[in-house]
Design brief:
By secondary structure, this protein is of the alpha+beta class. Among the domains are: 52 residues; 64 residues. Helix content is 46%, strand content 22%. It has a three-stranded antiparallel sheet. It is elongated, with a radius of gyration of 26 Å. 14% of the residues are buried. The N terminus is likely disordered. This is General stress protein 17M-like domain-containing protein.
Length: 174
């Protein structure tokens, strides 16, 4: 009998637990897009890309504010999400209904109940914040730079390929 922990570094399978990156740096880039382009180039050149990893260094959580929250926006969003859930539940009820075909009763009941509970939960959630977070936002994890690391046995070849890539002009369509 084999254990799933017998070989934690199986080829092509990422580790299950958080593991620090290993390997030698073969390139460093200001954006993830540039690092991705470098790895794409290695793949095109038949480089063993399974020995490569992109590592974001100096991570930052960036929260971009997308708008101001108001009671009307909160209630409209709550009603809409409740309506979708209620519609889903109503359609499920019609699937298991003994009557053939789609009946309006369960769908309408699910929709109205969903809107009601969506409004209530949105109002309670927003009201309990008491003006401490009156804005919407989207969060994103970004890095200051992106290093491409490679297994030591292939690092020299990888550096050479990426040096040739750096000599080529950037093609915006690729």
């Amino acid at each position: 009998m084999t254990s799933p922990f017998a070989n934690p570094n199986r080829s092509g399978v990422p580790p299950r637990l958080p593991t620090p990156p290993t390997g030698w740096p073969i390139g460093s880039y200001a954006t993830y897009e540039e690092a991705q382009r470098a790895v794409d180039h290695l793949a095109v050149e038949d480089f063993p890309v399974q020995e490569v990893m992109i590592v974001g260094v100096d991570l930052m959580l960036v929260e971009r504010i997308t708008g101001k929250l108001t009671w009307s926006r909160v209630l409209m969003t709550g009603a809409a999400s409740g309506a979708w859930f209620g519609l889903f539940v109503g359609l499920l009820l019609t699937l298991f209904s003994p009557e053939p075909g789609v009946t309006v009763g369960p769908v309408l009941t699910g929709l109205i109940t969903g809107v009601f509970f969506g409004l209530v939960f949105a109002a309670v959630g927003y009201g309990s914040a008491r003006g401490k977070r009156d804005f919407q936002s989207a969060s994103q994890l970004v890095a200051n730079r992106y290093d491409v690391l490679c297994h030591p046995k292939s690092a020299e070849k990888g550096r050479d390929l990426l040096a040739r890539l750096a000599m080529r002009p950037v093609n915006p369509s690729s």
